[in-house]
């Protein structure tokens, strides 16, 4: 993993409650770089996040929201956050339910700046 | 055991690396011996994990066993290995249709048609899905738009629909007044199945809501009891927290309305 990618992901994983951060290709959901806890299946997170982002992206365009720039899935025991970068890369975060989404999002924006 | 299955089993026993497991698994599936068919498919997959047909066989068995989500995943693996796999696109089209994701169903059935333009079952399925899409639009047009009367954006940014994408109430329209309720419901219903799958595989528990933000605003999708979904969309001037409050209020109205519909 390149140093700049590692630093971008480390910034995200330092946020309390974040279990993993990944850079993922948006078309096929492959992992470009990741920083995840041992029990997190990075490949599965990447594939599912990309697939969800594609589906909900179509919905957003249909609802005239436009190209999605942030997706937040909130579940009983955790959250999945997805932020597209302009070059076909998704910044994906898997977090605990009570994560500070604002802080995580700030670090995701920084990661987008690094990868674009 | 019938003679064909016996001879296929014997052939596989002689040469465990042979592809005869495909024929054997399919024969067992057709006879309704689903456990044996699954066993043959899994054994074949272990020996031939990069063979698209082995994933396709297992997916068909899984569908017959009622494990639709797993079948979907196997067919996804199939098309990753062979993007023009007829059986997988037909299967995915069927599952998308069954889940109300008409957009996904059309996409896969059109891919199936491209793989084999002469397959009558694909032509028939495409016709059925297109008819269903037309019905969905009609249903959207006749849904009670006034359900959310009194709430902010009642007729153009609040939509209640089921997980098959059928509009139950409210409405969604563009700034020019174009009704996009049916399309949006179909897309979001498809997205909700992805959310189900993601939450299950990542062990997040049931998903509660999703927010998608874009340059034109935000949309908040939540469950509204049973298999119904509630969508609230607003322009960028409404912060996410406010959107969640609106969604909560609309959800209460929707639940009351749904209860009133019970016989």
Describe this protein's structure.
The complex is a heterodimer of chains A (116) and B (263). Chain A has 116 residues and is of the alpha+beta class. Chain A has helices at 3-13, 42-62, 101-115, and strands at residues 18-25, 31-36, 70-75, 78-84, 89-95. In chain A, helix 1 (3-13) runs antiparallel to helix 3. Chain A is globular. The relative contact order of chain A is 0.23. By secondary structure, chain B is of the alpha+beta class. The A-B interface holds A 28, 41, 44-45, 48-49, 51-52, 55-60, 62-80, 94 and B 80, 103, 172, 174-175, 180, 183-184, 187-188, 190-191, 194-195, 197-199, 201-219, 231, 233.
Structural class, from helix and strand content of chain B?
alpha+beta
- Order of strands side by side in the largest beta sheet of chain A? 2-1-5-4-3
* Shape field of chain B: elongated
| Helix/strand class of chain A | alpha+beta
Shape of chain A: globular
Q: Order of strands side by side in the largest beta sheet of chain B?
A: 2-1-5-4-3
Helix content of chain B: 55-70%
How is the topology of this model organized?
The complex is a heterodimer of chains A (116) and B (263).
Chain A lengths: L2 H11 L4 E8 L5 E6 L5 H21 L7 E6 L2 E7 L4 E7 L5 H15 L1
Antiparallel strand pairs in A: 1-2, 1-5, 3-4, 4-5
Chain B lengths: L2 H12 L5 H11 L3 H14 L4 H14 L2 H14 L4 H13 L3 H14 L4 H23 L14 E6 L4 E6 L8 H21 L5 E8 L2 E7 L4 E7 L5 H22 L2
Antiparallel strand pairs in B: 1-2, 1-5, 3-4, 4-5
Helix pairs in contact in B: 1-2, 2-3, 2-4, 3-4, 4-5, 5-6, 6-7, 7-8
